[in-house]
Amino acid sequence: MRLCREWLTLRLCFTTAGLRADLESKLFGQHIASRIILKAVSGFMNDGNSEKPLVLSLHGWTGTGKSFASKLIAENIYKEGMGSSFVHLFISTHHFPHQSQIETYESQLRQWIKGNVTNCAQSMFIFDEMDKMHPGLIDSVKSFLDYYDKLDGVSFQKAIFIFLSNAGGDRIAETVLDFWKVGQEREEIELKDLETALSLSAFNTKSGMWHSSLIEQNMVDFFIPFLPLDYQHVIQCVLAQMKAKNRQPNPGVAHKLARDLDYFPKFERVFSVRGCKTIAKRLDFYT
Q1: Which of 104, 210, 237, 254 would you label with 271, given CA atoms 20 to 30 Å apart?
Q2: Taking the C-alpha atoms of 22, 58, 55 and 108 in order, what is their torsion angle to the nearest 10 degrees?
Q3: CA quadruple 275, 185, 170, 130: dihedral, nearest 10
């Protein structure tokens, strides 16, 4: 099995400090996700003898940063980030739309993953919209995530699998709201407050991981919660988007845009309903 030329060059360039800096400066309001992603990815990257692929499951409402976090991971590992030929994105409603063709999808998915890992052991696979995936499909790749040295001559131990899902988002929001109601800071929420609930939610929700062997047999290394964003986090998102578009950061515009978004609870307006999802599109209207 050949090692990717890009990986051989860049693995030496990957640093925990680089990933930490990106997570701290670009991923807003996600203290749990930032900490777990940093430890999990850095530990995996620095481990020359991993016994299985790294498998992460990111959960939370739309706009909380799940896709953005996976993008940051890719950018810290591969020179071309999400544009790398070694990063593969699957979107459930696009790549696997028809329930009647699930057997075909299973075969294609196994062949696609095996072929790409054969070509590059250090491949990354991102599965978006897991909550919309047909139940049972993801179990077709279970053997690739397990503790095997090789399967049919191919080792999957250096690959990374990331699942993105809205499943469990309501449970996360309830926990954050409960902390807020009793006057506790969101930073006091820990992984242990949510991880078990997330795995159970994914397992019992009739979607991509419904009754999945990936959960039953502990193939997922971490279930990572993404918390609802509050007003100040939305402001940070707007200012960051201005910077990304090479515009002068304008706090006045940022506050005006943020005020016009929907928040919950309805009267207290504490947490953004859509997170930072619509900010990029809305920004042109406000500037």
Answers
A1: 210
A2: -110
A3: 60
Give, to the nearest 10 degrees, the angle between helix 279-286 and helix 231-244: 70
Residue 32 has pLDDT above 90, yes or no: yes
DSSP string of the chain, one letter each residue: -PPPHHHHHHTTT--HHHHHHHHHHHSTT-HHHHHHHHHHHHHHHT-TT-SS-EEEEEE--TTSSHHHHHHHHHHHHSTTGGGSTTEEEEEHHHHS--GGGHHHHHHHHHHHHHHHHHH-TT-EEEEE-GGGSPTTSGGGGGGGGSS-S-BTTB--TT-EEEEEE-TTHHHHHHHHHHHHHTT--GGG--GGGTHHHHHHHHHHSSSTTTT-HHHHTT--SEEEE-PPPBHHHHHHHHHHHHHHTT----HHHHHHHHHTS-EESTTT--EESSTTTTHHHHHHHH-
CA angle 254, 275, 192 (to 5 degrees): 130
CB 253 within 8 A of CB 287: yes
Tell me the pLDDT of the chain averaged across its residues. 91
**Closest listed residue to residue 124, CA positions, set 25, 30, 44, 18:** 44
pLDDT in tens, 234-262: 999 999 999 999 999 999 999 999 999 99
Sorting pLDDT into bands at 50, 70 and 90, what band is 202?
confident
Instruction: Give the whole-angstrom CA distance, residue 151 versus residue 186.
Output: 43
Report the predicted TM-score, pTM, of the whole model to 2 decimal places.
Answer: 0.93
Query: Is the pLDDT confidence value at 110 over 80?
Result: yes
Residue pair 37/23 in contact by the 8 Å Cβ criterion: yes
